[in-house]
């Protein structure tokens, strides 16, 4: 410790009335060797290595400073002077009357209060304004933080709502319509949307085209037959009237003509064989391709109706 600091500490200790000799367990007549011996003896109980858990840092510091003050001539002189002034003042106070003693004590008390008031930090005139500004700034920052958090919450909720709407729209687009609600509270199953109906329509169209081609072919065949009959009638003239069952056709020999005209007349005189009509669909014989396709189409439609009925029953049970 510097000498001036040590002297100031000695004056303060004297002003407080601290008895440094009593702290070291010695008296005012002790020499330097007596003070060192007293310090070592006192340190046996106050040193941190000796005291252990009972170590008191403030007490050990006071003992060290008392030793330093009493071993320094300047600091000890300042301490002794202060202690003598205090003792003299105390003696004078004891010799005073009670009334005067009270007046002196009151005066000293007020002087001490005035000194403390001077040394205490005085509030500056702008401190209140600074505190108010600091409070306003803090409130503004808190309001900005609250608004930012609310904006973040609103943005998050909007994103969640958009995501939910997009998911609902995607689910509605990917999920078939369940149709109207049945009387029992269960929704009727939607119609099965697949390519079965398209296949049926394609087969029906092919069947119609096949029937149309067959009809056109039959018509062309009949037209060719009619054309052949017309040509035959033109060559032979008017056809002879059909004979009755009992009437005999005279077998007159043809006139003597060339061989080729005779052969043509023989061909024309022969009756034309009629084409047998096609058997009806229910009659015996191998079925036509159109009949087989119609029966296959009927079986397919029956299977599809059964499948739709099973799906509708499962939907009602669920």
Automatic annotation (TrEMBL):
PROSITE patterns annotated for this entry?
DNAJ_2 (PS50076)
Q: What is this protein called?
A: J domain-containing protein
Provide the protein's localization. Cytoplasm; Nucleus
Q: Which CDD domains match?
A: DnaJ
A Pfam family name for this chain? DnaJ
Q: Where is the sequence biased in composition, kind Basic and acidic residues? A: 91-116, 126-163, 198-234, 305-318
Under Gene3D superfamilies, the record lists: DnaJ domain
Low complexity compositional bias: what residue ranges?
Answer: 164-173
Q: Which GO terms describe its biological process?
A: spliceosomal complex disassembly
Q: Where is the composition biased (Pro residues)?
A: 274-284
Keyword set for this entry?
Chaperone, Cytoplasm, Nucleus
Keyword field contains ATP-binding: no
Stored InterPro entries: DnaJ_domain, J_dom_sf, Pre-mRNA-splicing_ERAD
GO cellular component terms given for this protein: cytoplasm; spliceosomal complex
- From the UniProt entry, list the residue stretches annotated as the region Disordered: 90-318
């Amino acid at each position: 410790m510097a000498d001036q600091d040590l002297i100031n500490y000695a004056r303060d200790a004297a002003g407080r009335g601290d008895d440094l000799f009593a702290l070291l367990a010695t008296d005012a007549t002790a020499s330097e060797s007596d003070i060192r011996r007293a310090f070592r003896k006192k340190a046996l109980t106050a040193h941190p290595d000796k005291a252990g858990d009972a170590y008191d840092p403030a007490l050990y510091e006071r003992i060290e400073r008392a030793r330093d003050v009493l071993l320094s001539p300047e600091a000890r002189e300042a301490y002794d002077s202060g202690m003598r002034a205090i003792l003299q003042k105390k003696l004078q106070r004891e010799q005073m009357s009670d009334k005067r003693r009270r007046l002196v004590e009151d005066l000293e008390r007020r002087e001490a209060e005035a000194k403390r008031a001077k040394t205490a930090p005085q509030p500056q005139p702008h401190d209140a304004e600074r505190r108010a500004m600091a409070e306003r700034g803090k409130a503004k920052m808190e309001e900005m933080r609250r608004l930012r958090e609310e904006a973040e919450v609103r943005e998050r909720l909007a994103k969640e709502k958009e995501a939910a709407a997009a998911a609902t729209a995607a689910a509605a687009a990917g999920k078939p319509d369940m149709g109207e609600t049945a009387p029992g509270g269960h929704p009727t199953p939607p119609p099965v949307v697949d390519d079965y109906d398209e296949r049926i329509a394609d087969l029906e169209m092919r069947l119609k085209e096949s029937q149309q081609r067959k009809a056109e072919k039959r018509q062309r065949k009949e037209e060719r037959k009619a054309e052949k009959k017309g040509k035959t009638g033109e060559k032979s003239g008017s056809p002879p009237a059909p004979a009755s069952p009992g009437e005999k056709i005279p077998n007159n020999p043809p006139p003597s003509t060339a061989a080729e005209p005779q052969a043509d007349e023989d061909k024309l005189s022969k009756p034309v064989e009629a084409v047998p009509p096609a058997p009806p669909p229910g009659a015996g014989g191998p079925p036509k391709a159109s009949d087989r396709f119609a029966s296959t189409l009927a079986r397919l439609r029956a299977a599809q109706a059964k499948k739709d009925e099973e799906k509708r029953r499962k939907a009602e049970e669920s």
